[in-house]
Fold this sequence. Notes:
Elements: H1 5-10, H2 15-24, E1 27-29, E2 40-45, E3 52-56, H3 64-79, H4 83-91, E4 95-103, H5 112-134, H6 146-152, E5 156-157, E6 166-172, H7 180-183, H8 196-221, H9 226-229, H10 237-244, E7 254-260, E8 273-275, H11 277-293, E9 296-309, E10 319-327, E11 330-338, H12 340-352, E12 355-365, E13 368-379, E14 390-391
Parallel strand pairs: 11-13
Antiparallel strand pairs: 1-2, 2-3, 4-6, 4-7, 5-6, 7-8, 9-10, 9-12, 9-14, 10-11, 12-13
Helix pairs in contact: 3-4, 5-6, 5-8, 5-10, 10-11
Amino acid sequence: MRLTPADVQAAPVAASELLAYLRSTGWRRLEDQERLDLRVATLMVHDARGAEVQVPLLPEAKDYPRRVAELVNIAAEVEGRSPHHLLAAIRVVQFDVVRVRRTGRDDDTLPVGDGAALFALANGVFVASSLAVVEPRATYSGRRPAKVTEFMETVRLGQTEQGSFVVRLLVPLPSSVGQSQTRLSFVQEHVPPPPFPRQVTRQLIRSVQRAKAAVTAAIAEDSLDPFRGEVRNGVSAELCKALNAIEDVNPLHGVEIGIAWGAAWPMERPHPVAFTSDALQILGQAAEFLAAKETLEDFWLEGYITKLERDDPAGEIEGDVTIATTLGGQLRRVRVTLQPADYSAAADAHRVGQRVRVKGDLGKEGRRFRLVRPVQFSVVEHDDEEETSVSA
């Protein structure tokens, strides 16, 4: 069925989207065109048929919907596909489209719990991947970086698709105006660095690929240690937990994650990454493993002592102190075991309300933070009113 101007008016497309799609599918501007008409650009596809289309540039023009409909109908005939399907492809040309599919089912429906978990999984892998772009870590705590929060607000939920139930998430990419698209030459002389949204989607697919590789290695080695080696590649406790979330709802099926790059920023399309139910169970174990193993070495901890603990308060033995500090944007309490002399200094600082500072390796014991191998304990002599903080 041919496209009509009314179809275009129902959901208009921008000239930049038309041009980006045509460029990505092989259309080129006529070389013998001496000047650019202010209203249209003439392009042709380099094939035996020599088809030509008129690309309208002014959406406010009265004939804009008609010209777009004509363009799509001609391009669809050249490509041998439905005009309506081609128009749908044009509308997402400046989006990376991530598809999350529940596998192991024969129909296009899901129990409500499965559906909610699938949407939560999709959101979770995006959060974990955007955090990994900012800084790869085994686990994250505290407030999200502003860049991550701002990015997550731009991610859009698309219409679900058939095929064992598919959740689509659309990541808008900035227009490449200023590059070849502006000149309408369709020849990229310089490849600009990818924008942050593309960095996240690229990290997402790499993270799930490496998570799957870690699952295979963990089975072969009978150890979860391979997951530690993949932290630098974006595998974190948060990613593993997000992927495992659906396993808690229905352990009989798996999940598959695929991506289609926005044609405005073309890349080679990777194969979808699938996880079986058994793999999801291992990812659940890996989430706990990575959360428990996270350690920040040579970490400077500064804050106020809120608790003193020593078996013999008057004796010359080591003791534990709890230091309240701001960690990851949130108030945290960190336990530290100090030698007798440092413990006494800490007790004095606690009595007069002075801040203390100590260096060590920051990690977790279950859900609690602990600084191990503490050195260079000192009392902060000049106590200003700045917010308590930590630094590496």
